[in-house]
Write a structure and sequence with these properties.
The protein has about 525 residues and is an alpha/beta fold. Helix content is about 30%, strand content about 20%. Strands 3-4-5-2-6-7-1-9-8 form a 9-stranded mixed beta sheet, with helices on both faces. Strands 10, 11, 12, 15, 16, 17, 18 and 19 form an 8-stranded mixed beta sheet that branches.
């Protein structure tokens, strides 16, 4: 490298600045880092600054940035005012760096930054292409399948690792995820990075050392906290604001059901009245999870049941409830997944799944419940030696029936139930027609995490694949089921008691008998 090149490089390095939180992410010993959480936390600048610095100092470094859509990755990282073209202008002018369409080529040492998208979900073209630094920008917008596939090709030869500058040894190959807690793979990142260890803690998982480094707008001095707060409050409801401004992963959001609200739609656990109509919905899976949900339909009458109470230890306390007539309540779930990796199924045999459903339907009025499902289980798919999945389930006590599977219509019905009905014409308040009991944890997590279909031609539909879809498909089938309300049996009154023929003495004796029965003693 001649002196002019060295001077230009020094000039560029001098202009690259990291704020303290970005510096933590740059200097960390972790090799698989989730950086972000809140919006406007300095994620994009960190990506560009880190990759440029590493490419200047490490010969032949191969870096890839992935984002969901091609226009997003190019406009954000290449064409923006602070993108690669602007950042690298001094080196471009002297011929040390060349920018060609979606690539940044460091001509003096062979390093490369390339920009990619996952819009067409065509992963095979990346198979076998080794990557030293992988960046998944807005990673929660990508499916877990894509994330795991791309992660599998991050590597660095032993010879290259030995030639790294001393300050970088042991820190490559490296994976960086930037994300907000919104999108289809929120559950994956919340489970694998955010909730399993304290923030900033480093833990070796497989071949990489994982770490979550939270970043909020307060950590980015380039942004106005007040302006960001005001802008983000207008994006959506309170849950959306908590996710975008505070980086809260406790209420992950997709973009398909913004109407969902834990406060409105989640209710305590209780055993519904025995006379309420009940049915099940089922989504089959083996390598992927299967899902079974138990539903009941409210009759519009007030009732009293015992609910869990944790105020002083664990007890049961009586509580009165009222739900609108025809309201749909999910009161039990069985989500067949690997609890350590919920995106993976259990690989259970069909007879075992069917018998498990029967065992989880213990009440007398839950025998032979109608179980709605989609069309997958009815053709002969060769799983059971020429017998259909539905026939195997029937042989083991679960009778599957094809539900109404129209997707957009089903989502519309579910959305209408989440929004609810007006029962008071004086106010605009609506009462939900859809409820989930607290114990149905997977449905509670996945319904608000369900994203829209990534195909622009199917934007009215929700995603058809991904971790969140199995439970949500069951909810859609339930919303499309015909509403059946079973009336409670009212105690019949003897017409003779309605006649005014009782003497005072007979009335007094009747009152005494009633008091005696209520108090357990004579009155």
């Amino acid at each position: 490298m001649d002196p002019s090149e060295f001077q230009a490089t020094n000039e560029l390095e001098f202009k690259i600045k990291f704020w303290p939180r970005q510096r933590q992410a740059f200097d960390t010993d972790a090799t698989e880092v989730l950086f972000g959480g809140a919006s406007r936390g300095g994620k994009s600048h960190f990506i560009r600054a880190a990759l440029v610095t590493w490419c200047l100092e490490i010969p032949n470094l191969q870096c890839k940035i992935f984002r969901r859509f091609s226009e997003d990755v190019l406009s954000n990282h290449m064409e923006s005012e602070t993108g690669f073209k602007a950042m690298l202008a001094p080196l471009i002018r002297v011929g040390l760096v060349q920018v060609v369409q979606s690539e940044v080529r460091f001509l003096f040492n062979g390093s490369l930054i390339s920009l990619h998208h996952c819009q067409d979900d065509d992963l095979e073209k990346y198979q076998g292409r080794g990557t030293n630094v992988l960046v998944l920008d807005e990673a929660t917008q990508l499916s877990e399948k894509i994330i795991k596939f791309l992660r599998g090709w991050v590597t660095m030869t032993k010879e290259m690792q030995e030639q790294l500058p001393d300050k970088y040894k042991g820190k490559f190959p490296r994976i960086i995820y930037t994300a907000n807690p919104i999108g289809q793979s929120v559950g994956f990142f919340r489970r694998e990075f955010v909730k399993c260890r304290p923030a900033f803690a480093i833990e070796k998982v497989g071949a990489f050392k994982r770490q979550y480094i939270p970043s909020r707008v307060q950590d980015n001095p380039s942004e106005s906290t007040e302006a960001a707060e005001e802008r983000l409050r207008d994006v959506g409801g309170e849950s959306m604001f908590q996710a975008l401004f505070h980086g809260s992963w406790d209420a992950p959001l997709g973009d398909y059901f913004p109407e969902y609200d834990e406060k409105r739609h989640v209710i305590p656990n209780f055993e519904p009245p025995a006379h309420w109509f009940r049915f099940r919905t089922f989504d089959w899976g083996s390598a992927e999870p299967f899902a079974c949900y138990w539903w009941t339909v409210a009759d519009g009458e007030q009732f009293e049941v015992e609910v869990d109470n944790f105020d002083a230890g664990y007890t049961k306390v009586p509580r009165k409830f009222w739900f609108p007539r025809g309201a749909l309540i999910c009161y039990r779930e069985w989500y067949g997944c690997n609890l350590n990796k919920p995106s993976q199924g259990l690989g259970m045999s069909n007879p075992d799944i069917a018998r498990g459903i029967v065992l989880r339907s213990p009440m007398p009025y839950e025998k032979n419940l109608l179980t709605l499902t989609d069309s997958y289980v009815f053709p002969d798919r060769g799983y059971e030696h020429g017998q259909t999945i539905a026939k195997t389930f029937a042989d083991n006590g679960v009778y599957l029936k094809l539900g109404k599977t129209a997707r957009i219509t089903g989502w519309s019905q579910l959305r209408a139930r989440l929004i609810g009905k007006r029962f008071d014409l004086i106010t605009e308040e609506r009462t939900p027609m859809f409820y989930i009991q607290e114990q149905c944890e997977f449905l509670r997590e996945y319904l608000p995490a369900l994203p829209r279909n990534p195909n622009e031609a199917k934007r009215e539909d929700a995603a058809e694949h991904g971790e969140a879809t199995h439970a949500c498909d069951c909810a859609r089938l339930a919303a499309m089921a015909h509403e059946i309300v079973v009336e409670s049996e009212k105690p019949r009154i003897d017409p003779a008691l309605l006649k005014n023929e009782m003497t005072f003495e007979e009335a007094l004796k009747q009152v005494q008998r009633n008091k005696s029965g209520n108090n357990g003693a004579n009155w």
